[in-house]
Amino acid sequence: MIDLYYWTTPNGYKVTMLLEELGLAYAIKPINISQGEQFAPDFLRIAPNNRIPAIVDHAPQDGGQEIGLFESGAILLYLADKTGRFIPADLRGRNECLQWLFWQMGGLGPMAGQNHHFVQYAPEKLPYAMDRYVKETSRLYGVLNKHLSDGRDHICGDYSIADMAAYPWVVPHERQRQDLNQFPALKAWFERIQNRPATQRAYELAKSVNTAPTVDEKAKAILFGQDAKTVR
After folding, report:
1. Rounded to an integer, what distance in angstroms lies between the CA atom of residue 210 and that of residue 213?
2. DSSP letters of 51-101?
3. Angstrom distances, CA of residue 204 to CA of 133, 172, 185, 189
4. What does the pLDDT look like over 27-60, one tens digit per residue?
5. What number is the average pLDDT over the span 79-100?
6. Is the N or the C terminus of the chain less surrounded, counting Cβ atoms within 10 Å?
7. pTM
């Protein structure tokens, strides 16, 4: 059994997408980040960065004591290695997959996240910041679109954790002020993943976890008001 500490964010969706593909037994442990549950001491023991997702694997491959992990990319890689699925086994394929996984972790996710913040949530509309992150999101969409334009169905060979990492960050493309019609190869890739049964199950599950996905002023204060004093 795997315990998944989860909320309905792109990084949370990555892990449910993979778990649903793998068919592993897992239990959702909701962490409502809009109410500050990410600061609970029990959660911080697993995820010291006070961010979801995190997991505890009660049956690791070595047969030893349970393993806790935070950071969505690390979790995807751990589960892929645990099962030998959704990551290429050969040297070149594996490293291509890791490159794109890290590209999402270091590029698409952070830049789209800043896009969301300044376009959707910032109390003051700052044209420079909005333009900066909308354009950078567009550039990253263009990078992936170009990569997919050689006729490949997925980012690196067969469907992999690289696809699962990137997909949830493209789901809110309209909120990011991106038009998928401008990225035809990316749009076709997006639709292929959207139509996978495991993807649909993962997104349906989210509806039962977060029944009121809104960010009110109290939630904004929790989510966007953190600094070094938050780390206790």
Report:
1. 6
2. -S-EEEESS-TTS-S-EEEESHHHHHHHHHHHHT-SS-SSHHHHHHHHHHH
3. 29, 16, 26, 20
4. 999 999 999 999 999 999 999 999 999 999 999 9
5. 97
6. C
7. 0.95
Fold of 2-85+212-230: Glutaredoxin (3.40.30)
* C-alpha dist (Å) from residue 172 to 42, 87, 110: 31, 25, 14
Strand, coil or helix: 195? coil
Instruction: State the number of CA atoms in the 13 A half-sphere of 199 facing the CB.
Output: 18
The whole-angstrom separation of Cα 62 and Cα 38 is 29
- Asked whether the CA dihedral 84, 89, 93, 99 is positive or negative, the reply is positive
219: left (phi over 0), alpha (psi -120 to 50) or beta: alpha
Q: Round the average pLDDT of the chain to a whole number and report it.
A: 95
Tell me the C-alpha distance between 101 and 105, whole Å: 6
The continuous run of DSSP H or E covering 29 comes out as strand 26-30
Q: What is the CATH number of domain 91-195?
A: 1.20.1050.10
